[in-house]
Design a protein that fits this description.
Layout (H helix, E strand, L loop, with lengths): L2 H9 L5 H13 L3 H14 L4 H13 L3 H17 L3 H16 L2
Length: 104
């Protein structure tokens, strides 16, 4: 779906983690970084255990140069992923966090 369709759904009153995740990713792909970050944050407010949203949120923050926030997002995301048994997502976020820490 394109951004316009997703924003129309939001305007009609649909607001949930999956919609915000999709809208966040679409905004990031379109170069609308701060909007994407905001939508991913809203996705996590709806579902704090959403591993894929944590991973995308951490990555978006890192890409924006907000490294400390990205590391915090990865830490929270790892905890959320582990609590849901999403071992692969936790492993990926650990790798991203280590790379980010080494890059400082």
């Amino acid at each position: 779906m394109n951004i316009g369709s997703l924003e129309a759904m939001l305007a009609r009153g649909t607001d949930n983690a999956l919609l915000r995740f999709g809208l966040g990713r679409a905004c990031l792909e379109a170069g609308r970084q701060e909007e994407g970050i905001a939508h991913l944050a809203k996705a996590l407010a709806h579902d704090p255990g959403y591993s894929a949203a944590w991973k995308a949120y951490g990555r978006a923050l890192a890409d924006a140069g907000r490294n400390e926030e990205a590391l915090a997002a990865y830490r929270d995301g790892i905890a959320a992923a582990e609590s849901r048994g999403d071992i692969q997502a936790a492993k990926e976020m650990r790798v991203f966090a280590r790379r980010l820490q080494r890059g400082r």
